Amino acid sequence: MTIQDGKEIKRRANNEIEGQQSQKEKDVMTQRNPEQKDMATGVELFKESGTMSDIISTVLGFESACVELSVSKPTYIENMLEREKQNNVLEFQEHMHLYLAGDHPQLTTARITDDDCLVLYKTLEANRYVRSIDLRYNVITDKGAAILGTLLEVNKFIEEINIMCNDFGGPGAVAIAQALHTNTTLKVLRLNGNKMGNKGGMAFAQALQINSTLESLDIGDADLTIECLIALATVLRENRTLKALNVNRPLLWTVQEEPTDHFTRMIKVNKGLKELHMQKFNMRDFGACRFAENLVHNFTLTYLNLNCNRITRDGTKELAKVLKLNTGLKVLDLGYNRLEDDGAIYLAEALGTYNTTLECLNIVYNNIGPKGLCAIADALSLNSALTSLYIWGNHFDDAVCQAFSSHLHSERLQAGATDIQSYVVDGKVYLCLTGPGMRAHYYYAPIFGDDVPEWQIRGEHIQRADHKVPITNRENEL
C-alpha cells in the first residue's frame, strides 16, 4: 500500500465519522418539539448568513443555545437581552454592551457561572452585535475562563471584556492569553483580582510579543511574581500598541527593587505606553530616582501611578526635577507615600515656577503638615495647568483651611476635581472630605445619585409602602 492510498483511506474514514455525527445531530433535531426545531434551524441560518448583527438575532441565538445545550435559560442573561430589546424600540442601537456584572443588587441575585459562560459562547460565537462584555464580580473559574478564551478566538467583533474579581487562576489566565495570539479585535482586557500568579503573568508576556491590537491590559492584584514582571517589562521594550498597563500589588520577596528597575528601563525606550499603574510595589527612593532618570527621555507616558509605596522626600525631589522639564506627564499619583513637608515643597516649587503640563496631582495621606500644604496652595496661584488636586489625609490647620477655601470659592479648584470642600462653623473655616478621590469607579460604582458613570445601569427607586396611622379623636368618647 502506498502513502497516497493510506491518506485516501484516512480521508474516507474522517468523512464517514463526520457523516455519522451529522446523522446523530439530525436524530436529536427530530426528537425536539416543533418550537425548539424551528428555533435551532433559524439560528443556524443566521450563523451561516453571518447576519447576527442586531438584538433580534442575538436573542434568537441565545434561545437556540439553551435548547442545544438542554439547559434552562439563565435568568440574568435573558433579562439583560430583553432589556436591550426594549431599549432598541425606543432608540436604535448599532452595537451592544452586554452588562452582566454580579454586583448590581437590583438586576440579579445569582452570579454568572461556568455553565452560563458556555451559553454565552454558543450565543456569541458568530455574533457581531455585542462589542463589549462586563462580567465583573461573578464566580467564573478556570473552566469558564477557558470557554471565554475560546470565544475570543472565534469571535472577531468583541472589543472589550471585563472579567475582574472572579475565581479563576493560572490555567484560566493562560487560556485567555493564548486567545490573544490569534485575536485581532480585542482592545481592552481587565482581569484585576484573579489570582493568576506567575504562570498567568508569563502567558500574557508571551501574548504581548505576538498580539498587536490590545491597547489596555489590567492584571493588577493578580499575585504576579518577580519573574513575570521582568518578562512583561522586557516585552514592552518592543511592543508599540499597548497604551495602558496595570500591574498593581505583585507578590515580591525582594528589597532590591529589581522589577521597578526593569520597568524604569522599559520606560526609557517604550514609545507607546501612556498609562502605567504600579501600586504597592514596595518602591523606595531608589525606584523613584530610577523613574526620574528615565522619564526625562519619555514624552508619551501621561499617567504614572505610584500610589501605596514608600517614597519619601528624597525620591520626590528627583520626581520634581522631571516635572520641571515639562515632559508628557499629565497625571501623577503619589498618594499613601511618605512625602511629608519637604516632599510637598519640592513639588510646589516645580509646579509654581516651571511646570505647565501636569493636570492632576494626588498626595493624599502623606503626613504633610501645614507648611507643605500651604506651599502647594501658593503654587496653585501661579500654576494654571493643574486642575485636579487631592490632599485629604494630611494635617490641616487654620492657614491651610483658609488657603484652600479661597481656591474653592474662586473656582480655581472645581468641586468635581478635588476631594475637599470648605464649610464655616462659628466664623471658623474647616475642610471636609467630599468624595472617594481618583479612580472613584474602578472597583465600585453607585446605581443612584449624580455620580453614576455612563456604563453603569441606574437603579430604579422602589416605592415604599404607604403606612398611614389613623388619627381618632377620643374627646367625644370621654
TrEMBL record:
Question: What UniProt keywords are attached to this protein's entry?
Answer: Repeat
User: Which SUPFAM superfamilies would you find in this protein's record?
Assistant: RNI-like
Q: Can the keyword Repeat be found in this entry's annotation?
A: yes
Q: Which InterPro entries match?
A: Leu-rich_rpt, LRR-containing_regulator, LRR_dom_sf
Q: Which SMART domains does the entry link to?
A: LRR_RI
User: Region (Disordered): which ranges?
Assistant: 1-34
Where does this protein have compositionally biased stretches of type Basic and acidic residues?
Answer: 1-15, 23-34
Q: What is this protein's record name? A: Leucine-rich repeat-containing protein 34
Which organism is the protein's source?
Elysia marginata
At the highest ranks, the source species' classification is: Eukaryota, Metazoa, Spiralia, Lophotrochozoa, Mollusca
